[in-house]
Structures are given as structure tokens and as C-alpha cells.
Amino acid sequence: MKNFSLIVLGLLLAFTMLSCSGDDNPDHDNDPPAEPTLIPHLGDVGDPGTAYYNLPDLVTLTEDNNGIDAVPDDDWIRIVWMPFIDTDLSHVKVYRFDDLNPTPVLLDSIPYNNDVYLDNSSDLQERTIYSYYIDLVDTSGNTATSDTVSYALLSKPILTAPQNNATVVPGQIVFSWDINDIVSFCRVLVMDENYEYIWHQDWVPAFPEDIPQIIFPVNLAQANAGHSLRWRVDVFDWSEDLQGYMGSESNERIMHVQGK
Fold it and tell me: Are residues 162 and 148 in the same domain?
């Protein structure tokens, strides 16, 4: 009888251990991270500030905080997101889809401490609306999915004058460029060597044969005499599908304003 009792006790202990082994580990984190927030295209450098960040004052738009956008480096799209809240994070998965390819494709997995991703894929096409979202993964494997942001590229404008690294004379600075696409307007943007905004002016074509060019104000040229300035041309065209502008940015050039 004693042996039978020991056998029964052993079976009960084994059953209890097997039952417990199927339970969730109470120390395991099953909570997903806070949902990440991608930043839509808020506008462009030179536009009025935005209250998107829910701050008491309007935020000045820069290349770093204006949301999804084209870049001057090439025919690429940059996406950005708000800082993550959680600290126990592992990595970020970046996905893309478009109207012709509606199934999302994993573009990349990147470290969690990045807040920007550059889609430099060679298959990006002009006037195709690309949509992006991210999965934020924590160290326990939990995932949170962001909202979706979209943008479309235009053909990049080609700068014609001044030449790169040219020395220019105040009062004689004329920006000119070529466009190979239909555009709603072009924006000439001038920054200092540290990419701090100085000036912009928009050019709107009245007729197809209009030559795109803008004169740099004499007073600004004189105020920056002896300095080097960066400049580029951004182009935009309205998209009914986006309900916003698609765009592109020229390569940047440097001009040296002749000193007094």
C-alpha cells in the first residue's frame, strides 16, 4: 500500500509540473510598445510654422521635422517619426506599398534608436504614390504598428546658374533652372553653410514657355557678402489622390558672395 501511495504521489507531482509548464511566465512582458507615429508631409522649408507637435507655439519647419519628403541627394524618399516612448526596444521594421503593388514589402530592419529612414531603392518611380508604415519591436518580441504616410516624387529640376562654387556679385545673382515635368510651382531656397534658412521665393509658371528664373534680393546678397551660401530648387505639383503636393528637390549648390 505504501508503494502504491508513493506511485500516486509521484504521478500527481508530475502532472502538476506538466500543467505549470504550459502557463505563461509571469515575468514575461506581453505588453506591446506604445504605437509609433510617422510624420506626414507637413510642408516645406519656408512655409508657415505648424502646430502638429501640440506645442504652445508654432514649430518652424526644417528639413528634419517636416515629415515624409523628397531629398536633394537623389530620387529618394525620407520618412521620419516621432520619438518613441518605450525604452525596452529592439528594432524597427520599415514597410512600403503602392497602388500597383498593394501588398506591403519589408524594406529594412533598423536599430530602434533611429528616427529617420531613407528609402533609396532603385525602383522608385516618378508620380507613383508610395505609402509607408513601421513595426516597432521590443526586446520581448512584442510589436506595435504605426499609422501610414504617403508621398510621390517628381522629376528633379536641373540647376543651370550660378555654377556650383561660383563667386557671385551682389546685385547680379540670378537663379535659373530647367524643369522636365508639369509643376504647380517651384521654390528657390537659400541657406547658410549650416543649413539655416535665409530666404526663399516661389516661381509659378504662367505659360509653358516661361523661363524659370528668380533674382536674389540685392540687400540679402550685400548682407551676406564674403560668405558662402547653399541654394537649391524644389518643385511641386498638386495631387488629387494625395490631397497634397508631390515634389522633388534639386541637388544643392554653393555660391560664394563676393565681399565688399
Answer: no
Same domain, 145 and 182: no
Average pLDDT over residues 29-48: 91
The single residue listed with the C-alpha cell 531629398 is 71
Q: Where are the alpha helices (DSSP H) in 105-168?
A: none
Query: Can you read off the three cell numbers belonging to residue 245?
Result: 503636393
- Is the pLDDT at 20 greater than 90? The verdict is no
- Could you read off the pLDDT of 130-188 as tens digits, one per residue? 999 999 999 999 999 999 999 999 999 999 999 999 999 999 999 999 998 899 999 99
Cα end-to-end distance, the chain, whole Å: 112
- CA dist 158 and 186 (Å) reads 12
Per-residue pLDDT at 54: 65
Cell of 17: 509540473
Could you tell me the sign of the dihedral formed by the alpha carbons of 112, 118, 119, 122, in that order?
A: negative
The DSSP line for 62-102 is -TTTS-SEE-SSSS-EEEEBPPPS-SSEEEEEEEEEESS--
Beta bridge mates, 70 = 77
The span from the CA of 48 to the CA of 57, in Å, is 12
Half-sphere exposure of 117 (CA within 13 A, CB side): 26
Number of domains in the chain: 2
* Residue 210 pLDDT: 80
